[in-house]
């Protein structure tokens, strides 16, 4: 596997790998993506294979802009208003597949809808432009592991399963894109992410929350039902207001309980955007020998806190494989 700093030459090389049906890991503003040609079924199959995904979850296709999206999905007035406000950026829209759309059926898991977004990261944009086709990309990690926000994370998780990694430095948003389904009567938030519910509602009015997303803090207390997706090796304890000496603490804000073996702060000033950007890096940093459990301070359930708490609940959910012993 080759790790390359982005330049005209390395982006052209990556684009040519993509056109050949090979995979390339690349930075987006949210997390690193494991990219393949979204119109090539075998390339998309290779993505699932490299990730070790147990099922074929549908993937997001990445395009440059609304004009690029219109080639593959049935566009709408709501989509247009959202794209004007949020694209390029961390908002994924689920729209009906356009007649004759060349997006791989495997990429959409056979659904008649397509998830599509225009990333704002300049390296992602350069790669899409150079490849001349949409890029299907889930987060560039093995299934069930913490999402990568640095090129090193990708290399550790995927190793030789990916021929090339474009190293664009740390991801600025740090959590995945918001996924919004525009095929329901009222648009439905399927996954909280980098674009906040509040900002979306300012543009299109009230949206519905998928049943999988709790609306208040109460549901944070029962993570048992959730599928484990963003899983550190160590158990994760949420809403920690005190800690024990064998714990690593993921703190938030200026009030930090004393006594943990190791403490990292998502944001000393309590800034949710800073916390999102640090989330996966600090979760990884606390997931290390000597630490019995990762304790996480309460995070407010507003703005980006919705996405942060969603990822933390998944990190805390036991996936039933018993691998936490
Ligand atoms: O920030 C991101 O979105 C990153 C970067 C690389 O762009 N990508 C990412 O992809 O997180 P992935 O595969 O981990 O998540 C895709 C999400 C899943 O929740 C999936 O269920 C949903 O999008 N999705 C994809 N296609 C869909 C569809 N047709 N209908 C409903 N949900 C869909
Ligand atoms: Mg993922």
Task: Note the main attributes of this structure.
single chain, 325 residues, alpha/beta, DHBP synthase, 15 strands, globular, disordered C terminus, binds threonylcarbamoyladenylate, binds magnesium ion
Summarize the structure in words.
Helices cover 28% and strands 17% of the residues. It has helices at residues 8-19, 41-51, 66-70, 77-86, 122-131, 151-158, 197-204, 272-286, 305-316, and strands spanning 2-4, 24-26, 33-37, 60-62, 91-96, 113-117, 135-136, 164-166, 178-181, 188-191, 208-209, 236-237, 247-251, 262-265, 293-296. By secondary structure, the chain is an alpha/beta fold. It is globular. Helix 7 (197-204) links the parallel strand 10 (188-191) and strand 11 (208-209). It has 9 helices and 15 strands. Mean pLDDT is 91; it is low at 216-226 and 319-325. An 11-stranded mixed β-sheet has the order 1-8-2-3-7-4-6-5-9-10-11, sandwiched between helices. A 4-stranded parallel β-sheet has the order 12-15-13-14. The longest helix is centred in the C-terminal third of the chain and has 15 residues, at 272-286. The structure holds threonylcarbamoyladenylate (TXA) and magnesium ion (MG). Magnesium ion is lined by residues 138-139, 147.
Q: Give the biggest beta sheet.
A: 11 strands, mixed
Report the total helices.
Answer: 9
Number of strands: 15
Which ligands, by name, code or SMILES, are bound?
Answer: threonylcarbamoyladenylate, magnesium ion
Q: Just give the CATH class of the largest domain.
A: Alpha Beta
Structural class: alpha/beta
The overall number of domains is 2
Order of helices and strands: EHEEHEHHEEHEHEEEHEEEEHEH
As laid out across the biggest beta sheet, the strand order is: 1-8-2-3-7-4-6-5-9-10-11
CATH superfamily heading of the largest domain: DHBP synthase
Average pLDDT taken over every residue? 91
Distance between the termini: 33 Å
**What gyration radius follows from the Cα positions, in whole Å?**
19 Å
List low-confidence stretches: 216-226, 319-325
CATH overall fold name of the largest domain: DHBP synthase
Helix content: 25-40%
């Amino acid at each position: 596997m080759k790790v390359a700093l982005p330049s005209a030459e390395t982006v052209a090389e990556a684009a040519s790998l993509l056109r050949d049906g090979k995979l390339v890991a690349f930075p987006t503003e949210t997390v690193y993506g494991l990219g393949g040609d979204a119109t090539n079924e075998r390339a998309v199959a290779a993505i699932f294979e490299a990730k070790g995904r147990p099922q074929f979850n549908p993937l997001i296709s990445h395009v440059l802009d609304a004009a690029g999206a219109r080639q593959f999905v049935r566009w709408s007035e709501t989509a247009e208003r959202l794209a004007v406000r949020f694209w390029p950026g961390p908002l994924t829209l689920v729209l009906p597949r356009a007649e004759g759309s060349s997006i791989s059926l495997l990429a959409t898991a056979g659904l008649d809808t397509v998830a599509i977004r225009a990333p704002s990261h300049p390296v992602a944009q350069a790669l899409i432009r150079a490849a001349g086709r949409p890029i299907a990309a889930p987060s560039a990690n093995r299934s069930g592991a913490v999402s990568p926000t640095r090129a090193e994370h990708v290399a550790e998780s995927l190793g030789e399963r990916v021929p090339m990694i474009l190293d664009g430095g740390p991801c600025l948003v740090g959590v995945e894109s918001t996924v919004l389904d525009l095929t329901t009567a009222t648009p439905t938030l399927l996954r909280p992410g980098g674009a906040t519910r509040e900002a979306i509602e300012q543009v299109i009015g009230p949206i519905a929350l998928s049943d999988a997303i709790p609306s208040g803090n109460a549901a944070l207390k029962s993570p048992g039902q959730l599928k484990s997706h963003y899983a550190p090796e160590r158990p994760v304890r949420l809403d920690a207001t005190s800690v024990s000496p064998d714990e690593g603490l993921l703190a938030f804000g200026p009030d930090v309980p004393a006594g943990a073996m190791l403490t990292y702060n998502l944001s000393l000033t309590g800034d949710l955007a800073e916390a999102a950007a640090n989330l996966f890096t600090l979760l990884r940093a606390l997931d290390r020998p000597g630490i019995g459990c990762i304790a996480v301070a309460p995070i407010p359930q507003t703005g980006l806190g919705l996405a942060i708490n969603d990822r933390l609940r998944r990190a805390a959910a036991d996936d039933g494989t018993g691998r936490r012993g």
